[in-house]
Specification:
66 residues, mainly alpha
């Protein structure tokens, strides 16, 4: 009975699939984090440019009004 238990590899296969799934999940989380950081930086950059353009437009309107 003990010999048959040692030869049974079905549990080992399930553990291997579990480890593979965990590694894939870690890779997906790392990728999503990196993409999220890049998107956040891009949105911050665009927001800054829009703010600068808006304040410049307000200054031009004030000069033209005089």
């Amino acid at each position: 009975m003990f010999k048959r238990f040692l030869q049974d590899e079905s549990g080992a296969t399930a553990v291997e699939y579990g480890l593979i799934a965990a590694l894939i999940a870690v890779g997906m989380i790392a990728g999503a984090t990196a993409i999220g950081d890049q998107l956040n930086n891009r949105f911050d950059s665009v927001a800054g440019e829009v703010k600068d353009a808006s304040s410049e437009g307000n200054r031009n309107q004030a000069v033209n009004a005089e």
